[in-house]
Each structure stands twice: as structure tokens, then as C-alpha cells.
């Protein structure tokens, strides 16, 4: 019997908790990272802070003096370990909250850390990003160190880079502008001045997007424009803080008196400039705890390097080093695949890889699926996700991860066709959304004047009060169908309702005023609740997150590893990026790839080399003979069941071409219409109107938004093609076997001119 992709060849190893110790993730005191901030009561004392920690996490939490290095694999509870370390020190009276500075790399991570520390009774600790901590110090000390007010912080440097390029008589398109801006950022975090940029690029073997001397010239002009306009950029915040602390020993001493204990999360991502700032904060002290995993170094293009983590023991010979390898996030099947990926890695980071040991019960095997083309891959992914949601997995616990953001479009279209709600990673922060600000104001007003509000006359329970108030802002007991802005607004308000329900479970006597205080504290900490909707995100954006089900898509050579990854070091970083993607999954993991880009295209793509030896029918690098993989069956999209229709309608050979001008089509919307957007349409307007009326009736009948029946583009394609048979209808993108079975007879009858079809939503 063959095993699906990634299945271990032997039963999972026994783990320490099988002897009766409770796994840390099962403790109600320690919510999972993706719980959106479960409300809990603080531990009663310092010893209670240690409850539920495994032996290694407890070692981290109780190592409060001297340098400490925590090597923490994915899903091993590193955030829990360091927040409990801080909280234990504070609750035991060893650390003063105001003397601790915890730094990380994203506002989300800093907000989560502050939220956890508050829950553990250590709310006075500063947890910030490097930039936020530096900016606060710079704003405070600037009048004393330099005089006057701090120059204005530049919101977006791209516009100024564009102007600098124009001054240098260099024309940049949008992509080049973005790339050159990234090069300037890299130069600054590696402390490279414009004149030295070409030499630094050559020394680092960096693949510059344009001539290095030309970029150095633009970089120099950019710096000149900033000086002329008295503005600073994001990187200047660190550079100027370093400059002040280096030049003004009195200010450096003041900062060191304030902060005496430092914790650095994601230490493998520290840049040379950030390390320099950390050294200045520390001075000659060594009260430092760093946490990281060299196997998750995926930001070297920004100047991040794992060298500081890997060299920590050399710099601090007396350091306590703790390895966290017990994986509480993922099943043994997912962990086996992740370990297999790193088992093939090369280079210095690979030499320090951590072999994870799953602490969870066995789950479903990771699935590897091959599709004929990208639309088929997106449609197949949407079907699987719809089935998972129907099986009870919340949409917010599912993610689709891809290598570059441009891959999202075909999935957005497929999800719209399938009626799957989604959210793009990288949207505005939760507490900055307009509907959340309006809801907060309404709740604040109700808390203050609720006794005079007839809306709350018969409502006693806190969640019911919140529902009543938010109903005036558009919240309803049932979500609106589909996705889009209306659904996004509802999801934001629903997240506040769930937060109120969690809050009252933790504090049964809580009032509306208590909840408002909690919301204010969360907003200040950027500690947002969970919003429902399948996450679409790049692999880089997924770092630090986790979901019950993860779909890794587009896993072909040229995309994974990406085309421009040439050197061994760059290839290994791409492998680590895939490893990060795999380790985001708790339970369900799907890996897929498409053999061609568009329907009918030549099947010339090859699956990523990183899955060699890990997917069925493949051989590990260096193995001889055909061999078989460590696991079983491959599901090929478009081969059976629903996917069969996709295979049937994609028997065309050659690329998709515009039926008007003959140009090769690549845009998903154009391929649906089989013509360029700008080419004239021969659509039957009357037929299109009849299809719209029929679709509206069907949507009412099934209580779904209209586009869940067919999108506008699909109806336009039908009205242009006027199909006369089921075969012709399934030749239109967006009409699969399931929709053909459900709606095909009606659509063909309407195209044939039959009257009264589907009126009032009746079949």
C-alpha cells in the first residue's frame, strides 16, 4: 500500500507528554498564535506562569541572567517561552517591567507579544519593533542631541526615488522603481553609502536590477533630495539613533539606565544595522536573550543574516543555549515533510537545522496534486477549500500561499466563482478600519449613556449588548453571502462580537465599560481579534502565522525556486521559504503545481526540485534509479470527479489566443472571454440581459450572491459564444461539470431562445 505525499515510513516517535505531562498548547492560559487573542485571567503568581510549559520552555523561562540563546523550530512555542520568561521575571520581582525592552520585526508580532504579556500580568513591559523603539528614542532625544524638532518621516520613499531617478536622467518603469527602492533600503541597512554601493554589490554577489553605478547615482540623489526637504526615511530612524548613541555617551548612558534587559525575537532576521543598534543599547552588559531559527531565514534580500544567531555562542562563550524542537503546531505527517525538506538542505544554516518532533496526534497525509494549467489549479483549490469549510473548518483557519503576489489574481477569481470568502494578507490594520473605529465609538457611547438608550432596555448579557449596539452599524446574525467590501465589514464587526463572547467567559461580571477598556488596550497594542475569510498571502507574508489548512500552490521550477535565484545560497533560501510555508499548517497540507500557465498551453513545466524524494514517483537528490518516494499517491487535478470537466474542456492544444486579433492571452479575465479586453465584442446584448435576469432569480433561490451562480465575465463569454451544446458550454472558462449539471440546461435553453426559463428562480 502506497503512502500519500510526506507520510513517515514508520510510526511517529513517542514524546515526553505521553507519560502524562500536559502539552503546553492545551493549557487555557496559552492561546495558539492564531486565536486572535483569547481572553484569559492572569496567572495567580510567578509559579503559575510556569504551568503548562514543557521542560525546555521552562528552562528558557527561568534563565533570567546572562546571555541566553533560544534555538526554536517552527511551532515549538518560542513566543510562549520568551513571554513567559519575561512575565516570570516580572512576577517574581527579578525584572522591573519598565527596564525590559523586547524587540521583534513586525507590528503584528509586537502587538501579539504585548497582548500575551498583558494576559500574564506583565503589561508594563515595552514590546516594540526595532524601528518603533528607535523612533521613540530619537523623538525624545533629538532636541537635546541635535536641536529643534525631528525631521518629518517620509511615508513612501518610492515617489522620492522616482524623482531622484528623473534628476539623474534615468527612466524606471514601475517594477524597476520598486526594485531600485529595495536596493536603496538594502544599502542603508548594511550601512553602505552611495559611493560604496557598486563595490558592496560586487562583494556580496548581489544581483542588482540595473547597473550598480547607475543605482548608486540614484541613491546619492535620493539622499540629497531628502536633505533639501528635511525628511528622513524608515532606515534613517535606525541610522540616526545609532549616530546619536555613538556620539552622545550621556544619552547612551541614559538609555542603558532605562533598559537593562533585552529580548530579541526572530534573531535570524537581524540586519547589520539592527545588530549595531542592539550593541549600543547593551553597552558592556550581556543581559540579553535572543530567539531564532536559522532554517527560517528568508529575508536576506533586505539585509537580514543568520550570522548573528549562528555566531552568538562565539560572541558570548558563557551563553545558555536552549533548543526547542517539540512541535505543537503540526501533525507528525506535516512535520515529517518539513524535516524531509531540510534534510536535503546545504550550507551553514542547514548545518544548524533543528529536527522537529511533533507532539500532536496523527492527522491526514499531505496531498500532492498536479493540474493541467493555472486556472485548473485555482479552481481545484477552491473546490477543496469549499469542502473543508463545509466539513466545519472556519474560513479564517485556511490559507493559500504562493511565491509572488501576482499569483493571487487567478485565486481571487476562482474563489469568487466558488463563493469562498477570502482576505488578502497585507490589508490595513484591524483597529484602523473605518467600521471598527465606528463600532468602537458606538460601544464607547453605549457604555457611557447606556442607561438612557432604549436599544439596551431589555438586554442584560454583555455579548447581547454588543450585538445590539453593532446591529446599528450593519452587523447581522447571518453573514452576507459572498465576499467583497460588505462581507469584509461584517467580518470585522463579527470579530468584535466574538471578542465580547470570549471576554465574558473569562470575566463573567464584565460590563460594557470593561470591554471598551479592553478594546482600547488592544488597539494600543495592535492586538487584533481574528477575522474570518480564507487568507491569500505570499510565503514571505505568511511568516509567523499558522492555519488549520494550508494550500501551497504554484510549486514549479522557475517559481519555487524563483527564476532569479541563481547561486547556491539563493537556492537554499528558496528551500527555506518553502519550509516556512509547510510549517504554517497544523492539520491539512496541500501542495500543488500546474504543468502550463493557461488552458491549452504546452505542458512544459516541472515540479519544484525541493519535493524530489518527498512526493510520489520522485527520487531524492543523489539517489540512483527511478525509485519511489517516501510516500504514496498523487492526486492529479482534472483526472476524476469534478475535475474531469476541467480536463475535458482543456483538450485544446496551443496557447489561448484572442479570437478577434489572434494575440496570445495571459490575463484570466481575457482568457475567460477568449478575446483581448480592448478588442470589439460581438456579444448578444439581449441574451446577456436575459442571462442576468435568470442569474438573479437563481441567486435568490439558493440564497447566494449572483456571482456564485456565474460571474459577469462568464455570462459575457456565454452571450458572445452562444453555445448550442453541453460540450460548447463547458468550453467556456468558469463553467465546470458541477455548474453544468446545476445550471447547464437552463443556460442552453436561454441561449436557444426558449421563453420562461427559470423565471422567479424556479427550475
Structure description:
The chain is built from 29 helices and 17 strands. It has 763 residues and is α/β, with parallel strands linked by helices. Helix 12 (272-282) links the parallel strand 6 (261-264) and strand 7 (288-292). Helix 15 (332-343) runs antiparallel to helix 23 (568-582). The longest helix is centred in the middle third of the chain and has 22 residues, at 485-506. It is globular, with a radius of gyration of 28 Å. The relative contact order is 0.10.
Structural class: alpha/beta
Mean pLDDT: 80
- Count all strands and give the number: 17
Q: Strand sequence of the main sheet, in spatial order? A: 13-14-12-15-16-11-17
> What global shape is seen?
globular
| Sheet with the most strands, sense and barrel status | 7 strands, parallel
List segments where confidence is low: pLDDT < 50 over at least 5 consecutive residues.
Answer: 6-38, 623-655
Radius of gyration: 28 Å
Estimated helix fraction? 40-55%
Head-to-tail CA distance between termini: 46 Å
Keywords:
7-stranded parallel sheet; alpha/beta; 763 residues; 17 strands; 29 helices; 6-stranded parallel sheet
How is this fold's topology laid out?
Blueprint: H1 46-49, H2 55-62, E1 68-72, H3 78-91, E2 100-104, H4 107-119, E3 126-129, H5 130-145, E4 152-153, H6 158-167, H7 174-189, H8 197-204, H9 212-229, E5 231-232, H10 234-247, H11 249-258, E6 261-264, H12 272-282, E7 288-292, H13 307-310, H14 312-315, E8 320-324, E9 326-327, H15 332-343, H16 348-351, E10 357-358, E11 367-373, H17 374-390, E12 398-402, H18 408-418, E13 422-424, H19 434-449, H20 462-471, H21 485-506, H22 512-525, E14 534-538, E15 547-552, H23 568-582, E16 585-596, E17 634-636, H24 643-648, H25 668-673, H26 685-702, H27 712-721, H28 726-730, H29 737-751
Parallel strand pairs: 1-7, 1-8, 2-3, 2-6, 4-5, 6-7, 9-10, 11-16, 11-17, 12-14, 12-15, 13-14, 15-16
Amino acid at each position: 500500500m502506497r503512502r500519500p505525499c510526506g507520510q513517515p515510513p514508520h510510526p511517529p516517535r513517542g514524546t515526553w507528554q505521553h507519560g502524562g505531562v500536559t502539552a503546553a498548547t492545551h493549557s487555557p492560559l496559552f492561546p495558539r498564535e492564531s486565536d486572535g487573542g483569547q481572553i484569559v485571567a492572569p496567572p495567580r503568581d510567578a509559579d503559575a506562569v510556569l504551568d503548562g510549559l514543557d521542560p525546555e520552555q521552562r528552562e528558557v523561562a527561568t534563565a533570567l541572567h546572562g546571555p541566553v540563546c533560544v534555538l526554536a523550530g517552527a511551532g515549538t512555542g518560542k513566543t510562549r517561552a520568551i513571554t513567559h520568561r519575561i512575565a516570570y521575571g516580572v512576577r517574581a520581582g527579578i525584572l522591573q517591567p519598565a527596564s525590559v525592552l523586547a524587540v521583534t520585526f513586525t507590528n503584528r508580532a509586537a502587538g501579539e507579544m504585548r497582548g500575551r504579556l498583558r494576559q500574564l500580568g506583565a503589561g508594563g513591559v515595552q514590546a516594540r519593533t526595532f524601528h518603533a523603539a528607535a523612533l521613540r528614542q530619537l523623538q525624545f532625544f533629538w532636541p537635546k542631541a541635535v536641536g529643534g524638532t525631528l525631521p518629518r518621516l517620509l511615508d513612501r520613499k518610492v515617489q522620492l526615488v522616482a524623482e531622484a531617478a528623473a534628476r539623474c536622467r534615468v527612466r524606471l518603469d514601475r517594477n524597476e522603481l520598486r526594485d531600485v527602492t529595495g536596493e536603496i533600503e538594502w544599502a542603508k541597512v548594511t550601512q553602505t553609502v552611495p559611493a560604496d554601493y557598486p563595490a558592496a554589490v560586487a562583494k556580496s554577489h548581489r544581483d542588482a536590477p540595473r547597473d550598480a553605478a547607475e543605482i548608486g547615482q540614484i541613491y546619492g540623489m535620493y539622499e540629497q533630495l531628502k536633505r533639501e526637504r528635511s525628511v528622513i526615511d524608515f532606515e534613517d530612524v535606525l541610522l540616526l539613533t545609532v549616530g546619536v548613541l555613538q556620539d552622545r555617551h550621556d544619552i547612551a548612558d541614559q538609555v542603558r539606565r532605562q533598559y537593562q534587559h533585552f529580548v530579541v525575537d526572530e534573531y535570524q532576521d537581524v540586519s547589520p544595522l539592527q545588530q549595531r543598534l542592539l550593541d549600543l543599547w547593551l553597552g558592556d552588559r550581556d543581559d540579553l536573550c535572543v530567539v531564532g531559527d536559522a532554517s527560517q531565514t528568508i529575508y536576506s534580500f533586505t539585509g537580514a543574516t543568520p550570522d548573528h544567531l549562528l555566531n552568538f555562542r562565539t560572541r558570548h562563550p558563557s551563553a545558555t543555549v536552549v533548543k526547542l524542537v517539540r512541535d505543537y503546531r503540526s501533525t507528525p505527517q506535516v512535520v515529517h515533510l518539513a524535516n524531509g525538506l531540510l534534510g536535503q538542505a546545504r550550507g551553514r544554516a542547514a548545518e544548524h537545522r533543528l529536527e522537529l518532533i511533533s507532539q500532536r496526534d496523527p492527522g491526514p497525509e499531505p496531498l500532492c496534486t498536479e493540474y493541467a494549467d493555472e486556472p485548473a489549479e485555482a479552481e481545484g483549490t477552491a473546490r477543496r477549500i469549499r469542502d473543508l469549510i463545509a466539513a466545519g473548518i472556519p474560513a479564517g483557519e485556511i490559507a493559500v500561499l504562493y511565491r509572488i503576489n501576482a499569483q493571487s489574481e487567478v485565486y481571487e477569481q476562482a474563489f469568487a466563482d466558488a463563493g469562498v470568502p477570502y482576505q488578502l494578507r497585507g490589508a490595513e490594520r484591524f483597529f484602523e478600519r473605518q467600521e471598527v473605529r465606528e463600532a468602537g465609538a458606538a460601544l464607547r457611547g453605549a457604555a457611557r449613556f447606556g442607561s438612557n438608550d432604549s436599544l439596551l432596555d431589555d438586554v442584560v448579557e454583555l455579548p447581547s449588548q454588543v450585538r445590539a449596539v453593532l446591529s446599528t452599524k450593519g452587523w447581522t446574525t447571518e453573514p452576507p453571502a459572498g465576499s467583497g467590501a460588505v462581507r469584509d465589514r461584517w467580518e470585522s464587526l463579527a470579530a468584535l462580537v466574538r471578542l465580547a463572547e470570549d471576554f465574558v467567559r473569562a470575566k463573567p461580571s464584565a460590563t460594557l465599560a470593561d470591554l471598551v477598556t479592553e478594546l482600547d488596550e488592544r488597539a494600543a497594542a495592535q492586538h487584533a481579534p481574528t477575522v474570518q475569510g480564507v487568507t491569500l498571502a505570499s510565503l514571505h507574508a505568511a511568516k509567523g502565522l499558522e492555519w488549520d489548512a494550508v494550500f501551497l500552490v504554484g510549486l514549479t521550477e522557475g517559481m519555487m525556486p524563483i527564476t532569479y535565484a541563481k547561486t547556491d545560497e539563493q537556492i537554499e533560501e528558496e528551500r527555506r521559504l518553502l519550509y516556512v510555508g509547510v510549517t504554517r499548517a497544523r492539520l491539512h497540507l496541500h501542495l500543488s503545481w500546474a504543468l502550463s500557465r493557461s488552458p491549452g498551453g504546452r505542458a512544459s513545466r516541472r515540479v519544484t526540485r525541493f519535493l524530489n524524494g518527498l512526493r510520489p514517483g520522485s527520487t531524492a537528490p543523489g539517489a540512483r534509479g527511478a525509485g519511489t518516494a517516501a510516500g504514496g499517491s498523487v492526486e492529479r487535478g482534472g483526472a476524476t470527479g469534478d475535475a474531469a470537466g476541467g480536463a475535458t474542456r482543456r483538450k485544446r492544444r496551443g496557447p489561448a489566443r484572442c479570437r478577434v486579433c489572434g494575440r496570445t492571452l495571459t490575463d484570466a479575465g481575457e482568457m475567460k472571454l477568449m478575446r483581448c479586453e480592448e478588442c470589439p465584442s460581438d456579444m448578444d446584448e439581449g441574451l446577456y440581459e436575459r442571462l442576468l435576469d435568470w442569474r438573479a432569480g437563481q441567486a435568490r433561490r439558493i440564497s447566494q450572491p449572483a456571482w456564485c451562480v456565474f460571474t459577469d465575465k462568464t455570462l459575457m463569454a456565454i452571450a458572445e459564444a452562444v453555445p448550442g451544446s453541453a460540450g460548447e458550454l463547458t468550453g467556456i472558462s468558469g463553467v465546470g461539470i458541477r455548474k453544468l449539471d446545476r445550471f447547464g440546461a437552463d443556460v442552453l435553453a436561454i441561449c436557444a431562445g426558449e421563453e420562461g426559463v427559470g423565471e422567479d428562480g424556479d427550475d
